[in-house]
Amino acid sequence: MKFLPFKILFLCILIPPLFFLFTLHFTESYIKKKYTAEIEEVCIGDTTPLFKGSITLRDAVKKNIAIYLETKLLIKWGVQINITVKTKKGIRLFPFFYQQDDNEFSIDKSRIIASENYHLLKDGLLVNADIIIPYDTKISYFIFLFYIFISLIILYCFYNIGAQKAKKHEFIKNRRIKGLEEKHTRYAKQAFIHEQKRSKLLNDLINVKKELEKEKLKVIKNEDEMLEEISLYEEELEESTSLLKHQQKYIDSLKLRIKELDHAKEKEKKHIEKASEVVTRRFKALYKNILFTKRALEGFVSLDNEIKIKSEEVIHQLNENFTKVSIKRKVFSKKDNKNPSFEVVIAYKGRLYFRHTKDGKINILVIGTKKTQHKDLMYIDKL
């Protein structure tokens, strides 16, 4: 989580439910307006039978609404609709629970029905369609999954940005480590040279002292000059010793710095492993027909973004229909010669190797590049 902002993760978790509720409310309002306008157009239907009195306005409205609802796919998907049709004077036409007795139909009654239909139509009709979309319907699932998909895309984009930062940080850190190692080598060489000088000076000092002891008996008047020369040698020795101690302290500090950088590198390695775990969970959720080896997942995480995107396209094709994937060649291993592996070229530089399992799934063995191809083939040969 070092390069993935917490607020982005929080928003990606919060966006789907909030936008789902807002979209559900907006969809209900939109469907209500649309269905109300359409029902107003079709609820009366052909007016000829109404004015002849062969059917009541209530029955015609009920029949036309039933035919209309049968054509609506959203109703079959679980959208609930409550339709009310009234005249402007408040007379309910639908729903109206009334059964007409066909045996009592006569010419006089048809005139009465025609007259009643005329007056009801003259009053004008008011149509109201209340729409309710329950949370457990197909359309609700689709809207919610859509916003989850959008959130995952946003999270994936920020993850890629974080991965780029991690790669840049790793490059800078390795360059610093290399610089410190070069300094350590240079100072170690200098310390070795100073140590050689020190040894030489010690030997010279011993030789001088010996010569001094011999010459003391012979030449007393040269004693002052000899002592002065010894003093000079001792001062140079002390300077060399002091410089050597300083260099040794600096070398020790460099060693401590290298240990700290190694510790930081270990932490970064753990961060990359966590990123691999995130990719593992995402692949398991998205690609049900594919199995991934640990080497394949680690190889995927270490790819460049361009090759990584192309690799995921190939993985998606393998999950949906592996016959659409262009296979470069078959690769046979020594241990399992009957079940060959297949090589797929990704964006010229990338390589993906997979084989079929006994239960009909795809097992992706290795994801790498042309540079790692030799090692990858040796790994497959051992499987």
Describe this structure as you would to a colleague.
By secondary structure, the chain is α+β, with helices and mostly antiparallel strands. It folds into three domains: 6-134, no CATH class; 165-283; 288-382, YaeB-like fold (2-Layer Sandwich). It is 67% helix and 12% strand. It has ten helices and eight strands. It has helices at 6-42, 48-52, 57-70, 73-76, 107-123, 138-218, 223-286, 294-301, 305-321, 373-382; strands spanning 80-87, 92-94, 125-132, 290-292, 329-331, 341-346, 350-356, 362-369. Strands 4-8-7-6-5 form a five-stranded mixed β-sheet. Strands 2-1-3 form a three-stranded antiparallel β-sheet. The model is unreliable at 101-105 (pLDDT under 50).
In short:
The chain contains 10 helices and 8 strands. The chain is of the alpha+beta class and 383 residues long. It has 3 domains: 129 residues, no CATH class; 119 residues; 95 residues, RelE-like (YaeB-like fold, 2-Layer Sandwich), CATH 3.30.2310.
Low-confidence stretches: 101-105
| Overall mean pLDDT | 83
Lateral strand order in the biggest sheet: 4-8-7-6-5
Structural class of the secondary structure composition? alpha+beta
Helical content class: 55-70%
- SS field, number of helical segments: 10
Q: How many distinct folded domains?
A: 3
Number of strands: 8
- Write the H/E string, N to C: HHHHEEHEHHEHHEEEEH
Distance between the termini: 35 Å
Shape label: elongated
Oligomeric state of shown chains? single chain
Q: Specify the biggest β-sheet.
A: 5 strands, mixed
Tell me the β content.
Answer: 5-15%
Radius of gyration: 44 Å
